[in-house]
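FYI - complex with D-xylulose, inputs then prediction.
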Amino acid sequence: MSTPFIGNQAYFPGIDAIPFEGRGSDNPLAFKVYDAGKRIGDRTMAEHLRFAVCYWHSFCGNGSDPFGPGTRAYPWDAVGGGLAGAEAKLDAAFEFFTKLGVPYWCFHDIDLAPDADDIATYERNLKHMVGLAKARQEATGMKLLWGTANLFSHPRYMNGASTNPDFAVVARAAVQVKNALDATVELGGANYVFWGGREGYASLHNTDMKRELAHMARFLTMARDYGRSIGFEGNFLIEPKPMEPMKHQYDFDSATCTGFLREHGLDGDFKLNIEANHATLSGHSFEHDLQVAADAGLLGSIDANRGNPQNGWDTDQFPSDLYDTVGAMMVVLRQGGLAPGGLNFDAKVRRESTDPADLFMAHIGGMDAFARGLEVAHALLADSPWEGWRRERYASFDAGEGKAFADGALDLAALRDLAEKAGEPTQRSGRQEQYENLVNQYLQR
Ligand code: XUL
Ligand code: CO
């Protein structure tokens, strides 16, 4: 548990460390389910869930959208821009992390430090801010879940970063990735993320997709080699997303990223960071993309949020749907946990949610939703008939001819002969509703 941290001033006056008050509480600034030290199976809730707060949405976002400017004027923004503004934001962030009681945080290089076209200035700014962040980590016990570089906001990256058709831009992207890797190692980060912001295309007419993908693989290989050379031992993570901002993004979904990593021999060092809203944008459920990644041995971490069922874009809402969190935690528990990854709230409060307290309530709700998902998923796996039912469904492959088939001991002609001997198969129900009822039954416990 981290120690509350107050910088030069308190940015969240009137809000103390968020307590656990249990299901009977009506206090909006208390946890109803998330009880960090409560044991679920072999671990505490905090150990299972490994929550992280993201720096960009929570401390850099102001509610602006394509139709209007920001609606929020947080107290740390009043300090202004430049390094003084960045320092105020850092103090506000550590005050927030520690009052909320999360163990981890995540950042992009230019969330933390002011960007600059001049490389020496950019590097000086980032080093300065990393030094301050390190001191605040040491003072509070906060840890870094992952760092990353923002290779999508600056206009120079409009045609991509590592997949840019202009080598000069590819090289410029290396400035940020090298520095973000240095920063992640300096802060003891457990993972390093690549979200391929503009790695994709707007039109195939002007795009050599094969060449761009080869460049992306080359760039990631160089980043991997540099990271390992400076002592980074964590996972590199690719974050799938099918579109937005580009019409088509190369890291489309878990299956696409798995193929890419294996094709280029990167699957020993890279895993996937699955974001709920990205999975739904690609036409899958969150649970589906998690399961595809887990089955490939590549589920590394999670960006916990949700989309809106009626909107087709990346709304980055805080997770609140218990069906989603149960489904996600089933996948996580079945694979034996998420470490060294975690659950990062890559989510933003709505443009209309303008009070600092809203930031707390959003995270409290997300943490409670995942804590309940954990409790229910654990109970379903440990106490309910679920796993037995599923095993039974495949029992015909556990022995005899079914096992011989699965082991590769039969050929197609032999299979044909077995079918003739056995006659028409008996119909067997899939019983989907039986499983759905079980989820509801356990959610209501
Ligand atoms: C964008 C997104 C990013 C990554 C980090 O959709 O999810 O915030 O998580 O670059
Ligand atoms: Co994300």
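Residues 39-383 form a domain with the TIM Barrel fold (CATH 3.20.20.150). The chain has a mean pLDDT of 97.
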